[in-house]
Amino acid sequence: MFGILRRAAPRLTRNFFTCHHASNIPATSKTTRRLLGSSATCRSGDGILSKPPTVFSLTNLSSSLKSGGKTRVKIFPETSNKSVAYWLLGSAASVFGIVVFGGLTRLTESGLSITEWRPVTGSLPPRDAADWDAEFAKYRSSPEFKLLNPHMTLDEFKSIYYMEWTHRIWGRLVGISFLLPAAYFIARRKVSAPMAGKIVGIAGLIGFQGFLGWWMVKSGLKDDLFAPGSHPRVSQYRLTAHLGTAFLCYTAMLWNGLSILREHKLLANPQTALRLFDHLKSPGLRVFRRSVGALAVLVFCTAMSGGLVAGLDAGLIYNEFPYMGTGLTPPKSELFSDFYSHTPDKSDIWWRNALENPSLVQLDHRILATTTFTSVMGLWAYTKLSPTLKKLLPAACRKGMHGVVGFVCLQVALGISTLLYLVPLPLASAHQAGSLALLSSVIILGGRTWVPRRAARLIQQRLAHSRPVLPKR
């Protein structure tokens, strides 16, 4: 190959093609030359290097892959940097805050104050009186102003405008503070390959969340999306979709951030981690581990039913507990009313009442909340009464279970208080935050209970490499 390069570039000096590393090494024997062959030698002025320094090239990589070799070029590291974990947890905290603030925006009926979607030019509020008059004129043409706030003044409009504007700006900040660091961490190879894919997925979910936000607001600006003369509100379907996507974003950020920190902690002490994995893989913990996963799904579904309650203002009826009127449930004719059916054969009466009838929607939320509370307390009793779990359940899982019990009791108290006091702003906001806090506690418990397969594989590899190789006799 050196001869070809000399002929292709005659102006270059011979010293450029000289293996200077080999010039200081004595010549090898003829036997070595025969064993290595002429293609594996590097000539110098003093002798022949038995084997030239390894040269990496795309040709070598291609031939290695074609020949089925085990050579692999790893673009991403095996483990993600701890800074990525802290960034994900900080992003999760920001999403937690915007979910709570979004609930306040809805409770103060500020969500429909901005009637346009301008991702770039809408980043700044009105600057002078003319701009404020223009924005107020747009709001006066909306159904909410005509039917609900016909006597609103400009100063009152400014208060609800700033609520919605802050919510939108916060959403943009969430997106920017995630996308830019994500690009940096991936470009600088500070994340593992699986984590890079997850981060890209979360980024896409954030963008989809922004689209859902405007899609939801748009539903409250058209008269044909709600019954004539009724209270102008956004679609409860779109509100729940918007809320559910925010919950998924938060859960993904929290789970992956905690996973990175846990992975680093386990890799710091592989022997202890291996014993912990053997402990968690015990068949006696299988029921508990699956129960925690089912509990997370149940908490999420209960929170989404709460989104339907909020979208329909169903918390403003039957403000008593545990009764609903004269009994535990309203009459069947009220729960499955023909009023909500849109087909002549009434085939949609079941699902439309379940999603659009405020009475049945509130009853469904009560049932799901009661089921969640009962499930948590049952799982906690299982950890206390089962001899197997007493022996096998790690201390971290016990503490996590206690945290779940505390949050579910707090959430039930907030929910009942919100209902009894006709949905006051502080209690309703705290109740929404409590649902996300309860889900967080279940996610943390799951992270302590489930066995991370990738971390287990990395630990086994490290232990295998650290074992001393005994010399052959």
Architecture overview:
The protein has 18 helices and two strands. It starts with a helix and ends in a 7-residue tail after the last helix. The relative contact order is 0.09. It has helices spanning 2-8, 30-36, 58-66, 82-107, 129-140, 143-147, 154-187, 193-219, 236-268, 270-280, 286-312, 332-335, 349-356, 358-385, 387-392, 395-420, 425-449, 453-466; strands spanning 42-43, 48-49. A two-stranded antiparallel sheet has the order 1-2. The protein has 473 residues and is mainly α.
Summarize this entry quickly.
The chain is built from 18 helices and 2 strands. With 473 residues, the chain is mostly helical.
Strand content: under 5%
| Total DSSP E strands | 2
Walk across the major sheet and give the strand order.
1-2
Radius of gyration: 32 Å
Uncertain spans, ≥5 residues at pLDDT below 50? 8-18, 20-67
Kindly state the percentage of residues in helix.
Answer: 55-70%
**What sort of overall outline do the alpha carbons produce when their principal axes are compared?**
globular
**Count of DSSP-assigned helices:** 18
Oligomeric state as shown: single chain
Distance between the termini: 42 Å
Main β sheet profile: 2 strands, antiparallel
Summarize the helix and strand pattern as letters.
Answer: HHEEHHHHHHHHHHHHHHHH
Mean pLDDT metric: 84
Structural class: mainly alpha
